[in-house]
Design goal:
Number of strands: 22
Protein name: F-box domain-containing protein
Radius of gyration: 27 Å
Biased composition (Acidic residues): 388-409
Shape: globular
Number of helices: 22
InterPro entries: F-box_dom
Domain F-box: 5-58
Region (Disordered): 378-423
Structural class: alpha/beta
């Protein structure tokens, strides 16, 4: 019998190019460089991407920056520059590698994460290679080492610096921790008056942005090509602007933002102002998607719109593609507003005819624009198409908003079911599960139907301010285990929850076995005040002790929302760190932190208080010399590289 034998080199170039897309530059070059002339020619045409260093050891990332990138600079299309897991790497890169534009002709996107302010400014001022890029991301979160250095910038100063320097940008993402803005409208107007109109920016994402900056930036036409806006409003230590400062802000005119289609806003109060600001765009049927969400703290009657006002705003548009979502967890209000809160909740319950849409503590409205219900003069319900021409007065009549949407895979069966805004995507790289998702039987059915999450690498589990009964924790873990089991590429899980959830997770054998065999990065953030480092460390060890196989964990991140002197001592830190190191032989990075505000409640006992003795003892425990360890510490953050 004749058997056709196919050699690797018999495969077409197109297939190799597809394979190359799934390899990091280091793996690609290690496997194919100098193999033969054919592969050398293919490698010379292959775009290269410097990935995030969260999956790398420090030495490998240094090699990327100082050896691989300079040699193949002309092919690099994306750079992720970070000192998050490799202190000093970016500064070495800047000092040793030329960043002249002529050497980096293919570079289109750059991410800068947790680098010093000096390095960031050098990259913007002196590196001509950045002038042509189309996407730029700056990440400096509160739990990262250099976050405090960026406090010297007001939100508008950072934005102006980037937009004025990078005129070819199509996408800008600022994910930086900001203190409350300390400027008035007059100062902001004066500074923005020098800003040039940016003719290319189409997508803008800002994690902390004042309402004043949002209004001035859009209302003066500085971003005429903007199509997608996603922001988290902050003011005086809270998300969202206060009414007093924004009552005089006029609605955004269509002429100043003619391309804006997608808006997503996180806020804590004054939803009415946000709706009013974007009302003209809605009136001109310009918006395709509008999403408001957050944890709402009712402080006055304007924070949450009355149902009739929301219905009027929604029905201004005649677009057939418009989608709207509003989801807020409602914190207990002041006694003077309790009756108003109950009245508003009753309105939403009656309008949606769904208990889950306005449960105690939560309001969620999903509005498919193509069909809604409207009450006629006889008190009977009639179906009205949104694409039809309505009378001018019809938008003021009460309307019942139907939350069923076949296009987005929503289902209305079961009055207690919570609904997600987007359908599950089996090809997603990240999956976020909120507390409400766990009691959604429709979601569980969707999860069961997905036999494989082909590219899922990260799962985030978020705590809800108003958790349901304790007995559903078992169901949550069953569903979490199912997703992990079906995710061959999963490497990372972030959990933000209380100690009860951590305890249930630790003693769940299926989850423990899966965590041990799959995870390389694990992050747990406690949200209650009864946690200690010993509690969390002990539960982590129990969780990863259900299997006799050594865990794959390389990065462990623990965050506790308390003043360190209430949950930490040097003896406890050293003793339990030794146990963690022993259990996780592959561990290379450990982070322990608390919110910055907590660290200053008792300044004599912040995390830096435990730093010197802890590192010395840990160094001895692992038979390392002190100069072989990398470490850094601030009042709220302790990082150790092993």
């Amino acid at each position: 019998m004749n058997i056709d034998r196919t050699c690797l080199e018999d495969l077409p170039n197109e297939l190799f190019y597809f394979i190359f897309l799934h390899l990091t530059p280091h793996d690609l070059l290690s496997a194919f460089e100098n193999l033969n002339q054919r592969f050398q020619l293919m490698l010379a045409e292959q775009p290269l991407i410097l990935p995030s260093n969260r999956w790398m050891r420090s030495k490998l990332y240094h090699d990327y920056l100082t050896k691989i990138l300079p040699k193949y600079a002309s092919q690099v299309v994306y750079l992720h520059l970070s000192e998050r897991y490799c202190p000093g790497a970016v500064e070495s890169f800047i000092s040793e590698v030329s960043l002249d534009n002529a050497l980096w002709p293919a570079l289109k996107a750059v991410t800068i994460e947790d680098v010093s302010c000096e390095a960031f400014e050098t990259l913007l001022d002196d590196c001509t290679s950045l002038f042509q890029i189309q996407s730029f991301t700056l990440i400096s979160r509160s739990n990262q080492y250099y976050a405090d250095e960026y406090k010297k910038y007001e939100d508008f100063e950072l934005l102006l610096l980037i937009l004025d320097s990078l005129t070819e940008l199509r996408s800008l993402h600022l994910q930086n921790w900001k203190h409350p803005p300390d400027y008035d409208s007059e100062e902001l107007n004066q500074r923005l008056s020098d800003m040039q109109i940016h003719q290319n920016l189409q997508q803008l994402f800002i994690s902390d942005c004042s309402g004043q900056l949002l209004a001035e930036l859009l209302s003066n036409g500085y971003l005429p090509q903007l199509r997608r806006l996603q922001i988290r409003l902050i003011h005086h230590g809270h998300i969202e602007p206060t009414i007093e400062t924004l009552d005089d802000v006029l609605p955004l005119q269509q002429a100043f933002a003619p391309e804006l289609r997608y808006v997503k806003v996180e806020l804590l109060s004054n939803i009415t102002w946000v709706l009013t600001f974007f009302e003209e765009l809605q009136r001109h049927s310009q918006l395709d998607y509008f999403h408001l969400f957050g944890k709402l703290q009712l402080a006055n009657s304007k924070d949450l719109p009355r149902l009739a006002d929301l219905q009027r705003w929604l029905t201004l548009s005649s677009s057939n593609v418009f989608r709207f979502r509003m989801k807020f967890d409602i914190a207990p209000s002041m006694p003077a507003l309790r009756s108003l809160e109950e009245e508003v909740f009753d309105e939403y319950k009656q309008a949606t005819s769904k208990k889950y849409a306005a449960r105690s503590g939560t309001i969620e409205i999903l509005y498919p624009q193509k069909c809604f219900f409207q009450t006629d003069t006889d008190g009977m319900n009639k179906t009205t198409s949104s694409s039809s021409d309505d009378d001018d007065d019809s938008v003021d009549e009460p309307a019942e908003m139907d939350t069923d949407d076949d296009d987005d895979s929503y289902s209305s069966s079961g009055s207690e079911n919570c609904q997600r805004c987007e359908p599950l995507d089996e090809n997603a790289q990240e999956l976020e599960l909120e507390e409400d998702d766990y009691v959604n039987t429709n979601l569980f059915e969707e999860l069961q139907e997905i036999s494989c999450w082909h590219h899922l690498r990260k799962i985030t589990v978020k705590f809800n301010r108003f958790p349901d009964e304790d007995h559903v924790i078992g169901h949550r873990l069953t569903r979490l285990a199912h997703v992990i089991q079906c995710s061959p590429q999963l490497r990372e899980i972030h959990i933000e929850h209380n100690l009860d959830y951590a305890r249930a997770l630790a003693f769940d054998v299926p989850c423990g076995l899966l965590f041990t065999s799959k995870l390389e990065i694990f992050q747990y953030t406690t949200v209650d005040c009864n946690s200690s480092f010993v509690d969390i460390a002990r539960l982590v060890l129990i969780l990863f002790n259900h299997s006799t196989s050594p865990p794959r964990l390389k990065d462990l991140f623990l965050k506790i929302d308390k003043d360190p002197n209430t949950w930490l001592s040097t003896d406890h830190l050293v003793r339990w760190m030794k146990k963690l190191i022993k259990r996780f032989p592959l561990l290379v990075h450990f982070t322990l932190c608390c919110p910055p505000s907590r660290a200053f409640e008792n300044s004599s006992y912040d995390l830096s208080y435990y730093f010197s003795e802890c590192c010395a003892l840990l160094s001895a425990s692992r038979r390392f010399q002190m100069n072989a360890l990398s470490y850094r510490c601030q009042s709220h953050l302790l990082e150790i590289w092993l």
